[in-house]
Amino acid sequence: MSTWTHAPRYTPEQLAQVLGGNPPTPEQSEVISSALEPMLVIAGAGSGKTATMADRVVWLVANGYVQPDEVLGVTFTRKAAGELAERINGKLEKLAEAGLEIPRDAAEPTPEQDADPDDLLLEDGPGRASVSTYHSYANTLVRDHGMRIGIEPDAELIGEAQAYQLAARLARSYEGDLSFLTSSFSTLVSGIMRLAGDCAEHLVAPEQVREHLDRIVEHGLSLPYTEKKVEGTSKEVDALISSLRARAAMADLVAAFQQAKAEAGVMDYGDLVRHAADIAQRIPAVGAAERSRFKVVLLDEFQDTSHAQMVLFRGLYGNGHPVTAVGDPNQSIYGFRGASAGQLFSMPTQFPRLTSDGERAPAAVRHLTVAWRNSLNVLQAANTVAAPLRQTGQEGIELKPLGPSPFAVDGEVRLDWYPDSVTEARAVVASLQAAGRAHLAEQGTPATRAILCRQGSQFPALMDALDDAGVPYEVLGLSGLLAVPEVADLVSVLQVIADPTRSDHLLRILTGPRWRIGPADLTVLAERAREMTRRQTRNGPNSTAADTAVDLQDTSPEEEAESASLIEALDFLPGPEWTGRSGRTLSAEGHSRLTHLRRELRMLSTQTSLDLVTLIRLVERTIGLDVEVAARPGAAARRHLDAFLDAADDFSPAQEAAAGHGTDLAAFLSWLESAEEHEKGLSLVGSGVVPRTDAVQLLTAHASKGLEWDLVAVPGLVVGQFPSSTVDLWTGPSSGHLPWDLRGDRESLPQWDRDWSTRRDWADAAKSWTLKHQKEGYPDAYRDLVAAHQLSEERRLAYVAFTRARTLLLLSGSHWRGENSKPTQRSAFLDELHELAQTTGAATLGVWTEPEDAGETNPFAKRSTAAIWPFDPLNGPEVVVLDPEHPEDLTLATPVPPRSRPRRAAVETAAAWVSTADPLDAASSLAAPSADRPDDGRSPQEAELARQVGWVLDRSTGVGQEDTGAVELPSHLSASAYVDLAGDPAALARQLRRPMPRPPAQAARRGTAFHAWVEDRFGATAMLDFEDPQDAADHWVDDSLDLAPMKDWFLGSRWADRVPAAVEAAVETTVGGITLRGRIDAVYRTGGDPKVPFDPEAQWELVDWKTGAVPSGQTLEIRGLQLAVYRLAWSRLHGIPLENISASFVYVAHGTEKTVHHLAGEEALEQILRQATGQETEGSPARLH
């Protein structure tokens, strides 16, 4: 029943004319001017839902139906909340500026047809709408009303990192029965967090889970094995019962976890929503007060809400209140955290409208189908892959395809089917390069480019192809970073020093290029591990590795246990004379290397109490990663290590980092394992990511949601990869899944039919039927139902990936994948688009390899390669392809070209200079090129090594102590170092000659903590941005840092409600041959075309937050050079004119802004460099004295 009190005064079209915006489409107009009653808006990807919601609020306010402060908007991320608030409140301000009357008493309405935009009058004080995140709203509700359900007002909200650490401590000290849990410790902690989150999101107590699982097991065991055999079992039956019992034990751990949180007086994000839903259901007065306060409610991204969030808002606003839910079921890809497309379809019945006779009827459903982002052909491809989803709409709700905007260009969708995945990776990179050049030539601006993968396992081949082509790239998302070799090395060391069961990670270390333990020594170490395990088994469960090490006895091979720990074998390494039962012994060199490795790991294991970032940096230095990465050419060599450090920094609670306390390493590793397992939302992608024009961005399809690029490639479209063939059953062996029949959205999920007369059928029904069952016409088994359900999930993911592209979409797969001996099958998605190409021309065929042309066997499976192992890490492996007819004859083998330049000769030459040459002569010879070593023949690594050798020689001759020798500038400087160069070049020279760490300071800790708080407000560093309440950061800071005054000033400043276009934006640019790098704290945008991400016509403001004293005069002018570097870098990165970029320092401790006018341009910055160094021309040596 409509609640109109009078006819509308203005149409959406009239308001658009007044406000100077684009006129709404008919669909948008219908949504904007809908009656004040519940409504579901199905908004396709890029259909302008945020603008439409803002326009609806403006229309309601302008027509006198609500006041601005009677509007509540709720969305997931802080960035999205900020954008929605800025849209709504910005348009309301324009409403007043335009002279439009905002009536507060509409007793005398003006008929719609009489409204004239030229006659609009002004009334001051329109107020502001309230916009929040889902968790922030729940946080406010619990804070205000928690005592009514027994929640203490001083209960502290803990972040995800702290929750993981609490779970890790609980698992470590738990005394209950864990005999059914056989996973690693980090997997156990991840399982606790997963099941605890599911229980909270679906409002199920862990005790209910335990009782439910016990009943299932009891029922299964009560059945006869078969109709003819009462007793008996099978591997399948035993595995299922073991899995169910493991899940029940996990439920006990979750119950203990909840008890631990209650005793500590803390709650996590899951508890927060659970308590808020409880308040909404149990305290009617709270709902009445909220409905009185907010006359209109907008729920954004409704397809991502959980059951608990549905119950919360239904309890508060579900009785005919004007709730507008906006979402897209085709973008529901976060089922792993409790969301489902089925929940969106239930909205009309969960939030019914009231008819004129007081009856309840389903809420109205409206659509937004005009896609403003995508080109015509990209849109056609997305519609094609989503077509089956439109046929499966639930609750009778129609799903419509997306349509093009009036401004859409044709664009291109190209389909490629390559002979093998290596060829595919290289071709994808080459295609993006060519398309980028074409885009620059046609548009005059560089293109943003991305490669979206279904699985992180696809990353290494693509990274190799990017490296080989010399294309800069950036891996986004935590699961993607874990595939980067240097990050994987770091994680392996962390796993080994944290968990003695992770022999898999030790094996990576042992066989890597640093230690190069050979096969023979590995075999001996494994034998040692097995003997220790056998002895532990004999001594009983309470025996230790040390007990075993001093009392080993020979046993038969049949008694060897499978759980042998290489880590314990290394930790209790025997003497060089030890001989195993097989008669083998360690080589002298192998024993020496293992001894050194053991010493190194033992040292690192004593440092795990350090804060996480410090520990990781220590590991990086200890294993030589910092040197190895520094030796790589290119300005972005450390990009991925730095991104991993950022992830660790974000995980560590700021209060602990500020106070110098450590972070539980096991909790961090559990979080990493969860990210790697899901390859989905646990990532550093979203609100803090800016599409780059200077690098190809590599990320998973899950992590791409909410982002967009000009050119997008989606490789690996083969059966088993995209769509994935993994069937995720809650009855399976993995820990942490809530039984699906306990989920709040169970009506939209397949269920395991347990009503069978025999135990074997009962167990088989949980998976797949045998061929015999299928022939007898048994109904679909649970596994088959789940597989069909997950195919729909994969379609949604493909739809999300395809709609990230603006103009070019490259879709590809390959006949042979990796080293598989069986050929792949084309993805159904690729086949459907192949048909589209044949019938409409909306897609084009590029390379299309027919099966007969790909060969009968996989060339990479058939091809046998050999290499000397272990190999020289400085030269890399010497790989050869063996002759298939005579593999034993290495003279017939074909060498494979090395992927990197050998470095052994250069390192040995440098070592010889240091050890044998006269120091002064050596320094002189290193400083200048010679006939034997011309300058243009030096590699960047050799030049850097020569410079560092020069430092050593300076010290040995006393030059360093006197600080009088010239020092050459490195190839790169930070922006702050450039400021030092301009202000005090002599001091910078001393620091370059003898780099010294700076002592920790309270001011630095204060600055770090304040930056962390600001970043958290904008969601730039949140690991799961949709789980950060507005005030969560308040718990993360040390009171001794005295941040409260700075925070109070910030919240009252003009910056508090502005949404930055970028936060902690990494930039680099070259000035006078020197690469300058830095991170811009915040970038704000004003004006321009909102559909153009980096519109050169917009105004851009760069902001640097400062917590120290306010400088003046020449000091401020010199420090302003930092902003000048940032401005030049931002201009070059995004093609924005310098005159459209301003920059300011904001001194929050003093409430002062200092806008630096007359910022230095490119020539002035180069001149400063030349004056400080005496550099005559670019390219000539730049030295400080």
UniProtKB/TrEMBL annotation:
Residues 22-375 form the UvrD-like helicase ATP-binding domain. ATP binds at residues 43-50. Its EC number is 5.6.2.4. One of its GO terms (biological process) is recombinational repair. Residues 376-706 form the UvrD-like helicase C-terminal domain. Residues 932-944 have a biased composition (Basic and acidic residues). Keywords: ATP-binding, DNA damage, DNA repair, DNA-binding, Exonuclease, Helicase, Hydrolase, Isomerase, Nuclease, Nucleotide-binding. One of its GO terms (cellular component) is cytosol. Pfam families: PDDEXK_1, UvrD-helicase, UvrD_C. It comes from the Bacteria. It catalyses: Couples ATP hydrolysis with the unwinding of duplex DNA by translocating in the 3'-5' direction; ATP + H2O = ADP + phosphate + H(+). It is an enzyme of class 5 (isomerase). GO terms for molecular function: 3'-5' DNA helicase activity; ATP binding; DNA binding; exonuclease activity. Residues 532-561, 924-944 are annotated as: Disordered. PANTHER family: DNA 3'-5' HELICASE, UVRD / RECB / PCRA DNA HELICASE FAMILY MEMBER. Belongs to the helicase family. UvrD subfamily. This is DNA 3'-5' helicase. It comes from Micrococcus terreus.
